[in-house]
Amino acid sequence: MPRLAALLLWCGLIWPLQAQVVDTWAFSSPRVQEQALSVAAKIRCPQCQNQNLLESNAPAAIAMRHEVFAMTEQGKTESEIINFMTARYGNFVRYQPAFATSTLILWGLPPLMLSLIALVLWRGRKTS
């Protein structure tokens, strides 16, 4: 009877646990591994909110992560990999979008707002 109780306890504790995705990749060298992880950390998962490819376990992120690892093994540079991913998935996957006409508001609005705030504070202080 104690064996049955132990088995039921073990099944009761283990059964509710869900499997996690185990991502194993054999890199050719530590330098390649460091580069691949660095690039994957700079690319956003297209399915997740504010998670990079290393943090996300979404199927799209896993596929993209493997693609980044494979491209790094092939000798591609960081900019080549990021440009490829941007062309394939759009600017959303970049944490720092390129400076272009379509991203002008994104890059120009913060300095403009800071300038306006400084001007308002300076004028308010001058009149007081």
Q: How would you characterize this protein structure?
A:
This protein has helices at residues 2-14, 30-41, 59-73, 78-89, 104-127. 59% of the residues lie in helices and 0% in strands. With 128 residues, the protein is mainly alpha-helical. The protein is built from 5 helices and no strands. The chain has one domain (21-111): Helicase, Ruva Protein, domain 3 (Orthogonal Bundle), CATH 1.10.8.640. Helix 2 packs across helix 3 (59-73). Mean pLDDT is 81; it is low at 15-22. The chain crosses the membrane at residues 104-122. InterPro entries: C-type_cytochrome_biogenesis, CcmH/CycL/Ccl2/NrfF_N, CcmH/CycL/NrfF/Ccl2_sf. Belongs to the CcmH/CycL/Ccl2/NrfF family. Keywords: Heme, Iron, Membrane, Metal-binding, Signal, Transmembrane, Transmembrane helix. It holds the Pfam family CcmH.
Key features of this structure:
0% strand, Helicase, Ruva Protein, domain 3, 128 residues, 5 helices, single chain, elongated, mainly alpha
